[in-house]
Amino acid sequence: MSESTPAAASPEASVSPSLGARLAAEAFGTFLLVFSVVGTALFAAGFKGGDGGLNVGFVGVSLALGLSVVIGAYSFGPISGGHFNPAVTLGLAAAQRFAWRDVIGYIIAQLVGGIVASSFLLWILAGAKGAKGDFLTVQFKGASTGYDVLSPGGYGFWSVFIIEIITTAFFLYVILGVTHVRAAAGFAPLAIGLTLTTIALIAIPVSNGSFNPARALATAIYGGPDAIGQVWVTIVAPIIGALIAGFTFKALFDGTKKA
Fold first, then answer.
1. Residues 111-153: pLDDT tens digits?
2. DSSP states of 164-224
């Protein structure tokens, strides 16, 4: 999830990927994340099958989020660092783990990957029986992040704003910790994915679980006026949380003692 994530030893490991390759990896990784988590929310979390036994609910969406990041980090992490999230990119830059000059390119790639993923989901959803009128907008509104009408639990603005800041900050602290030079090699994607699953279980009932401006925007663009009007909250709050973690990690956790 960062440029310091250890890679397996190979002849290619010593060759730095080009910027184009890294941006492609970020776009594909973000596509995987959004397609997985939003697809689960759209097609499986509210599935009406039999007595409801096929409905995966919040737990299923949380697992889809965590597993998609584990898969993406192992697959694309050796190429781009596996951010898949503008807040992560900004947090890593704030922590001096990522070059500020590459931030804009990464964020654009992530936004493109997320929007392409949600566009394909819209196309698939359009083939559902009874997909007429406002059906598509209503479905994407239900998968969008926000407060009041967009909050699964009906939580207000400040509840959503606070939980998105805290959970994203915690997420960045974990990323910075498990990709530290003193961390055990090879386990970062697992720890990061499990952390996402954990914070999603906390936040989905409150905000629908963003932590990721690319994911928030990808659903909001098809979710109607409420989703578009509120998307700024789950863009700004995760960025604030990530920057807090990035700017404070070294002072809090990276101190050394004199010999």
1. 999 999 999 999 999 998 878 779 999 999 999 999 999 999 9
2. HHHHHHHHHHHHHHHTSTTSPTT-HHHHHHHHHHHHHHHHHHHH---S-HHHHHHHHTTSH
Per-residue pLDDT tens digits for 201-224? 999 999 999 999 999 999 999 999
Does residue 95 contact residue 71 with C-beta atoms inside 8 Å? no
Domains, in order of start, for the chain:
11-252 (1.20.1080.10)
In this structure, the chain runs to a length of 259
103 residue type, one letter: V
Residues 28 and 76: beta-carbon distance below 8 Å: yes
Tokens of 46: 């509210």
Place of tokens 């974990």: 174
CB 79 within 8 A of CB 17: yes
Looking up tokens 């603005």 gives 157
Token output for 16? 């730095």
